[in-house]
Amino acid sequence: MRRESNPALAAGFEKAVSDGTTMTVGGTIVKILIMTAILGVAFVYSWIAFQNPDVNYKSALVVSLGGSLILGLLTSFIPKIAQFTAVFYAAFEGVLLGSISRYFESMFPGIVFPAMLLTIICLVATVLIYRRTPNIAGRISRGVFIAIISIGAIYLLGMVLSFFGITLPIYGSGIIGIGFSLFVVAIATASLIMDYDFILKASQYGYPKYMEWYGAFGLMVTLIWLYTEILNLLAKFSDN
């Protein structure tokens, strides 16, 4: 199977161990819907809760961020636990995204709905593209993988430089910042196609049933990344 652009999916599928059951695309879709529902409920809860000035916003943000990172890493390296951790990961991410979205909405009123709508449009568009031209995944896989590694390296460099009071222009709302965000959104969107392809191939190769949760987890990681990058892009446009 070709290299997967989504590190969360690649790490786990390489460690999958057969248990006599078989993963299916339909089963993975059901898991994705379950995780999306949980994330949505947590999102709405945190969105409403953070309107209350008595709610400790920072504590909830730290807990949800920490929970997401810990569960995300554990699930990536131990795929078999995805059937237990994926739903909790979705809940933590829902709280985290709800709080982040609420913050952006307070800074740029009306920004959240367009970000959600654009994320859904990207999701639907990539599904249609993949259904019509499934071989597109093979043509873009290497480029997408290299781009993701490069983006991660740039973000890491930006974090290191921030300790010295240096801010890269990619974080600004100028031409460079907007251009970089457009590029990242494009790569995140392309990653969805790679995720679809990998889930399909894993089902065809007879991976174990529990990997449905892992496939759903990996796809959700990409969708969350895409949504936050679109939110960031729209914020740059609004600020500009």
From TrEMBL:
Q: From what organism does this protein derive? A: Clostridium perfringens
Pfam families in UniProt: BaxI_1
PANTHER family, alphabetized? CONSERVED TRANSMEMBRANE PROTEIN-RELATED
* Record's keyword terms, sorted: Membrane, Transmembrane, Transmembrane helix
Q: What is this protein called?
A: Bax inhibitor-1/YccA family protein
Q: Does Transmembrane appear among the keywords? A: yes
**Which sequence ranges are marked TM in the entry?**
29-48, 60-79, 86-104, 110-131, 143-164, 170-193, 213-235
